[in-house]
Structures are given as structure tokens and as C-alpha cells.
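Q: What structure does this chain adopt?
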Amino acid sequence: MKFRVQVVCVQDDGSERCCDVMELERQQLVRETLGLSMAEGKAILHGVQEFVTAQQAAKISSAGANARTAASDTRAKKPECTP
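A:
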């Protein structure tokens, strides 16, 4: 049995970014292999956290770049003054 853990970020415009966090395979279905091990759970959480943080940082960076561009466009429209 195989399991794939994915995270999908749906952008404001509806576009999606997908990340495969981890794949698990269970050969035997016995008590010892039921569920996730602590290490697997931590690895999944770490992968999700990295992806979510990266998407948020990209959004903030993009918003900052857009704000800087808008500000520079505004400054460009003002007449230049030389002392």
C-alpha cells in the first residue's frame, strides 16, 4: 500500500502550486506499521511547513516588489528637482 502526502496552495487568481511532501509504502499490515511513526509525522510536518512558509514568503516578496514598483512609478511622474 502506498501513500502520497501533498500540499496544494491555491493562489488568489485560482492557480495552484503543488508539493509532494512525502511518499510512504507499507508492505505488511501489522500492528507495528499502522499509522505513522514519530519520525514520519515530523518529516511530513517539516515538509508542509517549508512549503507553506515558502509560498507566504513569495507572496510577501511579490507584494513588496509591486509596492516598490508602484512607488517608483509615482516618483517617476514627479518633476525632478535639482538643488
